[in-house]
Amino acid sequence: MHLTILGSGTNVHPTRAAAGYLVQTDQTILLDFGPRTLMNLIKTGVDRHGITHILFSHFHADHFSDFITFFFDSVIYAKHEGGHRPDMTLIGPRGTIRLLTAIMRTFPSFSRPPFKVTLKEVSAKAFMIGATRVVPKPVVHVPDLSSVGYRIEYQGKTMVYSGDSQYCDGLVRLCAEADLAVLDCSFPANKPGPVHLHAGQCGQVAREAGVGQLILSHFYPIADRYDVKAQAGERYRGKIRKGRDLLTIRL
């Protein structure tokens, strides 16, 4: 299993793309697709036109908006550039089908693409993408929006992606004994903000869940002004890495 961080920041971070993660197992899967992550995906050398599954944690713009550009590019590639584009499956929490159906119907050139698009909403049940097992779990982010984290299991290795989350029991359970957890570290512990984890809480989740390795990501600019790695380390004694765009980790 390989994880490549396509975006470790937020909408307005001056040096980091917003949320996006590329997971390579027997499949090539995208977790979220925030602004500026498409160009980082291209930099990886992975064939973007071969990607068949995109999993969304929630639909705030910093986790979603580059999908618009990606999908339009896919349609142009298949319709006008003679390229073969396999079918695409888009997966997310409650509200996914309503939102994406509206986009497909109203954005110019999005209706009737020359490949099949399947929309799915997750429950708490695990599902398979090829030989890769995906376990979605609800997490607490904001009250008016469904949000999920994802547990990816392949050949005895497990990684977890929190999406955006506050500290909650669901997130700790999702991360249980994972080899790697990528957690929302929006704020430093000494300058916490609303509806996100801060660095100390990331360490707390990793310790309580027995995580093998902690990756801090999704930084607001203020998080880069403090030693968030050391703050997380006050509560978790395992390996901690501060995420950056195009960092690749092999499990």
Number of domains: 1
Query: What is the percentage of strand-forming residues?
Result: 25-35%
- Write down the oligomeric state: single chain
At the fourth level of CATH, the homologous superfamily is Ribonuclease Z/Hydroxyacylglutathione hydrolase-like
Taking the alpha carbons of the first and last residues, their distance comes to 5 Å
Briefly note the CATH topology name.
Metallo-beta-lactamase, Chain A
Q: What is the C-level CATH assignment?
A: Alpha Beta
Shape: globular
Order of helices and strands: EEEHEHEHEEEEEHEHEHEE
Report the radius of gyration as a whole number of Å. 17 Å
- Widest sheet, order of strands: 6-5-4-3-2-1-14
The overall pLDDT, averaged over residues, is: 97
CATH architecture field = 4-Layer Sandwich
**Helix amount, in percent?**
10-25%
Query: Structural class of the secondary structure composition?
Result: alpha/beta
Structure, explained:
The chain has 251 residues and is of the alpha/beta class. It has a single domain (2-250), classed as Metallo-beta-lactamase, Chain A (4-Layer Sandwich). It has 6 helices and 14 strands. The chain has helices at residues 37-44, 66-80, 96-106, 169-174, 199-209, 228-233; strands at residues 2-7, 20-24, 28-33, 53-55, 88-92, 117-121, 127-129, 132-138, 148-154, 157-161, 180-184, 213-217, 239-242, 248-250. The strands form 2 sheets. It has a 7-stranded mixed sheet with strand order 6-5-4-3-2-1-14. Strands 7-8-9-10-11-12-13 form a 7-stranded mixed sheet. The longest helix is centred in the first third of the chain and has 15 residues, at 66-80. The radius of gyration is 17 Å and the shape is globular.
